[in-house]
Amino acid sequence: MPRRLLIRPGAIGDTILSLPALENLITGETEIWAPSQNLPLLSHLAPVRPLIDTGIDSLTLGNATLARLGSFDEIISWYGANRDGFRDQVKHLPFRFLTALPPPDCPVHAVDFYLNQVGATPGAIPRLPVARSDEGFAVIHPFSGSPKKNWPIENFRAVAQFLPMPVHWCAGPDDLLDGAMRFDTLAGLIPWLSHARLFIGNDSGIAHLAAACGVPVIAIFGPTDPRIWSPRGPSVRIFPWDTPPSRIDWGQRP
């Protein structure tokens, strides 16, 4: 059976949105290279390797890296599509390069953009194999990968006052928020998050993670287009930035 390598760089949300496409590319002998933080999102699909350990980020690829790449019969890569130097070094190898991000004017949701790239049927929902249960608490994660996407934190605090359930705040290692839950890795965050009754946050990788765990999600969108970037799932609700906090709760819609 041919050996296939999938190279998927990118942030947490980008990886989750491409999960259905990656699932369609899995064969009997597949390996995935991805950023270390994202490996818990992919390890259920195939053996994974941290990108940092592969040597492909080097300006000049070493013999060991080229030999490792050469051991695959097919390489599908979202890495290096815009790196002419990298493409030149691997032009003798069976690479197929794919665009890593949908364009700003993409006419379809990002999940379907990635599915279209691999010739798969659109409409799939990213899923992670977690033990989902509802333990009655809400998670508020008021951060994202860019401050430009963050709804004012005082609005999240106001929303918390309207929720008829306990609230746990969640933050990344570098986010400033006293008393928040913090996890060093996604492997630690995923099992905790999967027990939430509700997740509230911005357009962020953790919002996509919650949806992929089957948690109902309320996502607040400002400068990004939810038609492309919203979490996808049966229990996802999107609210625009100008929605009053009093209108964002478990039972109301804008």
What does this structure look like?
The protein is α/β, with parallel strands linked by helices. The protein has 2 domains: 114 residues, 3-Layer(aba) Sandwich (Rossmann fold); 110 residues, Glycogen Phosphorylase B (Rossmann fold, 3-Layer(aba) Sandwich), CATH 3.40.50. The protein has a 5-stranded parallel beta sheet with strand order 3-2-1-4-5, with no helix packed on it. It has a 5-stranded parallel beta sheet with strand order 7-6-8-9-10, covered by helices on one side. Helix 2 packs parallel to helix 6.
Task: Break the fold down into its secondary structure elements and pairings.
Blueprint: E1 4-7, H1 12-17, H2 19-25, E2 30-34, H3 39-42, E3 48-50, H4 63-70, E4 74-77, H5 84-89, E5 95-97, H6 110-117, E6 138-141, H7 153-162, E7 167-169, H8 186-193, E8 198-202, H9 205-212, E9 217-221, H10 226-229, E10 236-240
Parallel strand pairs: 1-2, 1-4, 2-3, 4-5, 6-7, 6-8, 8-9, 9-10
Helix pairs in contact: 2-6
